[in-house]
Design goal:
The complex is a heterodimer. The longest helix of chain A is centred in the N-terminal third of the chain and has 32 residues. Helix content of chain A is 74%, strand content 2%. Chain A is mostly helical. Chain A starts with a helix and ends in a 5-residue tail after the last helix. Chain A has a two-stranded antiparallel sheet. By secondary structure, chain B is mostly helical. Chain B has one domain: Orthogonal Bundle (MetI-like fold). The relative contact order of chain B is 0.14. Classes of the chains: A mainly alpha, B mainly alpha. The interface between A and B is large, with 81 and 82 residues. Chain A: Keywords: Cell membrane, Membrane, Transmembrane, Transmembrane helix, Transport.
């Protein structure tokens, strides 16, 4: 036993070294930097909360807007993912595996390529406007499709959906058919089965899908830059620019950590709500 | 009610798939305008992209990064998965969770944190080596998780039998353990490589002046309309989807 543990710790060494040296250490350092300052274009150690104050005063409304749109996208994505996974697990029969496979194919289809394709699909001469005009639903192209919050929502929902389907489907697959039949035989109604069995089983997967989408969405800047237009500035754009032309890494760091902390709070709220909703009752 | 569910699922599938299909169609379109209907078909954008020295350079860089990341994360991820199987269950769960932490951090945060760490603390010059190190952070957990999933249904009695019959630990690893988890290792490697190949955000902040396929694509998108960008996009998409598909096939991963 001791021998096995010694081998195991040797085998863990490279992996833990990568985790410590290229993740924990850089992230801790980056966190410390958020209390520093940039003066005369040089990064100077300090212990100030000035950057955090600036996040809330100068970027407060951008942060709130980002969190609102990210929460909306995460909710929509988790809902669609649940509906799709539920269909694949319970309704699709032998096509279920194929439909899940299809979502897996689109999982790695290229981050930039997806954003760029939505830009062309939603554009003035794009596929969606052409289709709408061909069907006679509109007489001219709808300009509001692109460069709007709507475009950001569609694009990021599309990007995150395959990622969100996986954990929900994984959770639903763990639910045994006999448990549902037993509940039905004992006289449970459809809604009751849905809430007490299916939703309770999917809770962990749903929370994971929501959290993943929320975090990716709240910290994205390529999507708002490419399809968002001036009204949909998101915090990621400002984080990114602190490391480009504005050169203020302490401020960028503070923004990033405040955003992540807010996402954590939102996920915690959701997880507690879901737990209360699906609590077993007697 | 029932038909509603069918329609909903079909629409979701179309929603997921259509941008990828439209991209492939545009690649073969004669016209430089990205609009329907398609008036003629041609391979001119492939010619244009493949003869561009920037593309060949970015392609080579992408292959270097992806290859190095694939090999290294496979080694460290496999070792970690083997170790997890030996640890007491609670410790194993905690270690796996710790090693998987990087997956939960958004790539933008990882990118800017590593940029700050490399350039203002340890003085590591930006470039391909920095990109490779950075990619290990988020590819290693994937390899580990995929092999761990296989190890969970692993028959330890076979290894013990080999050991009882006098095989050394190294012999039993190469003759018993490796053949059993081999497909999962290859699968995990391919999926790690797909992730590395497609990464834009972390690469963008740690590469300095050079280019990989995604950062080349980004530059083309920023500059304006050059339809050969479709070909760059399709190259990234094709390679990463092919790697993923073979990977999932080998690991028999199902949801």
């Amino acid at each position: 036993m001791r021998q096995a543990l010694r081998t195991a710790s040797f085998q863990l060494l490279p992996g833990l070294a990568i985790l410590a040296g290229l993740f924990l250490l850089p992230l801790s350092y980056f966190f410390v930097v958020s209390f520093w300052q940039v003066r005369t274009f040089r990064l100077r150690p300090d212990a100030t909360l000035e950057q955090y104050a600036r996040v809330f005063t100068e970027y407060g409304s951008t942060l709130a807007w980002t969190l609102a749109i990210a929460t909306l996208i995460a909710t929509v994505t988790a809902a669609i993912a649940f509906a799709y996974a539920h269909y694949c697990r319970f309704r699709a029969g032998r096509f279920g595996d194929g439909l899940i496979f299809l979502s897996l194919v689109t999982l790695f289809g290229g981050y930039l390529a997806k954003i760029y394709m939505w830009k062309t699909i939603l554009g003035g001469t794009g596929a969606l406007n052409s289709a709408l005009m061909a069907l006679g639903l509109t007489s001219g192209p709808i300009p509001a499709l692109l460069f709007s919050p709507f475009a950001v929502i569609v694009t990021l929902t599309h990007y995150c959906l395959p990622l969100a389907i996986l954990p929900v489907y994984g959770a639903l697959r763990g639910l045994d058919d006999t448990a549902i039949e037993a509940a039905r035989d004992l006289g449970a109604s459809g809604p009751r089965i849905f809430r007490d069995l299916i939703l309770a089983q999917a809770r962990g997967g749903l929370t994971a899908a929501f959290a993943l989408t929320l975090v990716i969405t709240a910290a994205d800047y390529v999507t708002p830059l490419m399809v968002g237009g001036p009204s949909s500035n998101m915090i990621g754009l400002f984080i990114q620019s602190q490391f480009g032309n504005r050169l203020n890494s302490p401020l960028g760091s503070a923004m990033a950590f405040v955003t992540i902390a807010c996402c954590g709070l939102i996920v915690l709220t959701l997880s507690l709500t879901l737990r209360a909703l699906t609590r077993p009752r007697t | 009610m029932r038909s509603m569910a069918h329609i909903g699922a079909a629409l979701t599938a179309i929603f997921m798939l259509s941008p990828l299909v439209i991209l492939v169609i545009f690649c073969f379109s004669e016209s430089p305008l990205l609009a329907f209907p398609i008036e003629g078909w041609s391979l001119r954008w492939f010619d244009k992209a493949f003869s561009d020295p920037q593309f060949t350079n970015a392609f080579r860089n992408s292959m270097i990064v992806t290859g190095a990341v694939g090999v290294t994360s496979t080694l460290t991820g496999t070792l970690a998965a083997l170790a997890l199987a030996k640890l007491p269950p609670r410790l194993a769960t905690a270690t796996a969770a710790a090693l998987s932490l990087p997956v939960m951090v958004p790539p933008l945060l990882l990118g800017v944190a590593l940029l700050t760490f490399y350039s203002t603390w340890i003085g590591l010059p930006l470039g391909l080596p920095a990109v490779i190190l950075s990619h290990l952070v988020f590819t290693q957990p994937l390899v580990m998780l995929m092999i761990s999933a296989r190890m969970a249904s692993f028959d330890h009695a076979a290894v013990e039998a080999a050991r009882d019959l006098g095989a050394s630990p190294i012999q039993s690893f190469f003759h018993v353990t490796l053949p059993m988890i081999g497909p999962s290792i290859t699968g995990g490697t391919l999926i790690a490589m797909a992730l590395s190949l497609d990464d834009f955000l972390v690469t963008f902040f740690t590469i300095g002046g050079g280019m990989t396929l995604p950062t080349l694509m980004w530059g083309m998108l920023r500059k304006g309309i050059d339809p050969s960008v479709n070909v760059v996009a399709v190259t990234i998409m094709g390679l990463s989807i092919a790697a993923t598909l073979i990977g999932f096939r080998l690991t028999r991963y199902r949801g």
